[in-house]
Amino acid sequence: DMMKEVSGLKDLEKQIKSLLDIKDVIVVAGDSDLSPWVKKEMGRACVACMKERLASQSIVAVAGGTTLAAVAEMMTPELKQMDILFVPARGGLGEDVKNQANTICARMAEKAMGNYRLLHVPDQLSDEAYQSMIEEPAIKEVLELIRSSNMVIHGIGDAITMAERRKTAREEMAKIKHRHAVAEAFGYYFNQEGEVVHKVKTMGIQLEDVKKVKHVIAVAGGASKAKAIKAYMKQAHHSVLITDEGAARELIRE
Ligand code: F6P
């Protein structure tokens, strides 16, 4: 029954929190690998978590991916009075338009009745183009907003799944595999110790910046992401994790 299910999830949360040694964990029912609506449930939990933690005039940086797209869809307008500014966490990471940070950021702001700024930069930039672009006043301004964000919301992916989804070049793919990457988040690839083994070059928030942000919320579920979640969380002890039962049970089983 309902009460039993809720207490079961609370128990899972406690176990995951101590297993991963992280600040806070929310586990929703189901497995998003099997049922797509579970992403929306994680989205609902994420929105509630955001509302608890956001102060007026906060800047929220959001990453891309299908999970974050579900978070955006679950956003509600109660934040309207708070004058929140949404920005994309980083530039293009090779996602389809609907799963890009820019798109999700605009959608989330629209649903929250907040404001947003976008980062208009191509995915692949030569070093020279990159250097001159970050000096462009319009881009510089958005980059500064991103760097001063009070909250970051991001997904976590399985490293190989993400590298393939991004159509990563052969050489780069070889490096990712050779260095045993298991997790990916906002363009960084991590091995099972939580060490960075590769990074996609794009503008926006860097891992060092994320570590200084007050509220970091990672949203990732599905049994297939258990290894990735475990690895990523090794270097993100001050983050809040929003996950599902599928991932949580797999984490405990491992
Ligand atoms: O590419 C953006 C991104 O946020 C990645 O950093 C992350 O690994 C991935 O999306 C998660 O995507 P999904 O929620 O679709 O699994």
| Low-confidence blocks of residues | none
Order of helices and strands: HEHEHEHEHHEEHHEEEHEHEH
Number of helices: 11
> What fraction strand?
15-25%
Shape designation: globular
State the helicity in percent bands.
Answer: 40-55%
- Major pleated sheet: 7 strands, parallel
Structure summary, number of beta strands: 11
Strand order across the largest sheet: 1-11-10-5-2-3-4
Class by helix and strand content? Answer: alpha/beta
Q: Compute the separation of the termini in Å.
A: 27 Å
Structure report:
By secondary structure, this protein is an alpha/beta fold. The chain is 44% helix and 17% strand. It is built from eleven helices and eleven strands. The strands form two sheets. A seven-stranded parallel beta sheet has the order 1-11-10-5-2-3-4, sandwiched between helices. A four-stranded antiparallel beta sheet has the order 6-7-8-9. Helix 10 packs across helix 11 (245-253). The longest helix has 19 residues, at 2-20. The mean pLDDT is 95. The structure holds 6-O-phosphono-beta-D-fructofuranose. Residues 63-67, 93, 95, 154-157, 162, 184-186 line the site of 6-O-phosphono-beta-D-fructofuranose.
In short:
Helices cover 44% and strands 17% of the residues.
Strand and helix layout:
Elements: H1 2-20, E1 24-28, H2 37-53, E2 59-62, H3 66-74, E3 85-88, H4 101-112, E4 115-116, H5 127-133, H6 137-147, E5 151-155, E6 157-158, H7 159-165, H8 170-178, E7 183-185, E8 188-190, E9 196-199, H9 207-210, E10 215-219, H10 226-233, E11 240-244, H11 245-253
Parallel strand pairs: 1-11, 2-3, 2-5, 3-4, 5-10, 10-11
Antiparallel strand pairs: 6-7, 7-8, 8-9
The structure holds 6-O-phosphono-beta-D-fructofuranose (F6P).
